[in-house]
Amino acid sequence: MRVRATTALLAVLLVALAAPVPAAAARPLALGVGHLPSDDIAEVDSFTASVGGVAPAIWTLWSAWGGPTAPFPSATFLDALRDRGIAPMVNWEPVDPSRQLSSRYTYARIASGRHDAYIRGWARAAAAWGGTVYLRFAHEMNGTWFPWGIGRFSNTATTFKEAWRHIVRIFRAEGARNVRFVWSPYMLCPWCGRYSTIYPGNRWVHHTSFSAFDWQTEWLPARSMTSLFLPSVRALRQVAPRKSIIVAETGTPAIEGYKADWIRDGYPAVHEAFPEILAIVWFDVRTEDADHPDWRLSQPPAALAAYAAIVAQPQFQGRLIP
């Protein structure tokens, strides 16, 4: 009897092991927006209403070290975001907007301590506020179009990494553990620096990230959202395989029909293909540069309707820690 019971138990275990294991449900994507003006809660509420009442998971703010937006953002505004379940992501730009050709904020100067008083004050203000802030320092640094780009002035991959680590050390020393550092190069491109040469290291980064735009024109072929993201996701899998990814800026031109389809098809495809992508932030901005497309979701209106249909679905209502 004992032998028969053991045999029966073994048979049950083998059947159980052979049965297919249900796939874990993919976590919902957090969808955010970069919108101007960025520090007006009425704009936040207006955008939310325009997409059917679903608040964005992330709201982007811009902060330039040498300009009027240099201080830590208003605690009142950040409180209002938190009340709405929205996480702030700050593009922290080491530049004086009025003096774009100044070398005042090079990475070597930052790493040497020349700007410690400003960094320390910002970190203390962040710690005092206490909520989670996603800090995107010197985004798209692997290109040369911004003054903080590697290759501009004396900026190198080495000095960038030194400056990054120096800043993180200061934030930790000031108790600003509520700040999550988002390392955010531009998507892989022929004239951009390699990710592996500029990654500060896992100890110094909470989330990896990238910007990726579909520059579809009569000269450039159209690219789906998944094909646009794929090269950068693959590279980040190599550089930091255990880090979740935030697509910090994305967009496509205001082409009737095409933009709505790009949104409608793109988000579900990305959600299925890239489980490591935690969030996608739409660049809802029309730049002043005439060579740039109109990235706004409202142009054309069909694109906004397509986006509203996406954010209404539970799999696109993920939230970060606000």
Characterise this structure.
The protein is an alpha/beta fold. It has a single domain (27-316), classed as Alpha-Beta Barrel (TIM Barrel), CATH 3.20.20.80. It has ten helices and eight strands. The protein has helices spanning 2-18, 41-50, 75-83, 107-111, 116-129, 157-173, 195-198, 225-239, 258-273, 301-311, and strands spanning 30-35, 58-64, 87-93, 133-137, 179-183, 207-213, 245-251, 277-284. Helix 6 links the parallel strand 4 and strand 5 (179-183). Helix 9 (258-273) runs parallel beside helix 10. The longest helix has 17 residues, at 2-18.
Topology, number of strands = 8
| Low-pLDDT ranges | 1-24
Count of discrete alpha- or pi-helical segments spanning 4 or more residues: 10
Question: How would you state the average pLDDT, rounded?
Answer: 91
- Classified by CATH, the class is Alpha Beta
Rounded to an integer in angstroms, the radius of gyration calculated over CA atoms is 22 Å
The name of the CATH architecture is: Alpha-Beta Barrel
Q: What's the name of the CATH homologous superfamily?
A: Glycosidases
Number of structurally distinct domains: 1
Main β sheet profile: 8 strands, parallel, barrel
Quote the distance from N terminus to C terminus: 61 Å
CATH topology: TIM Barrel
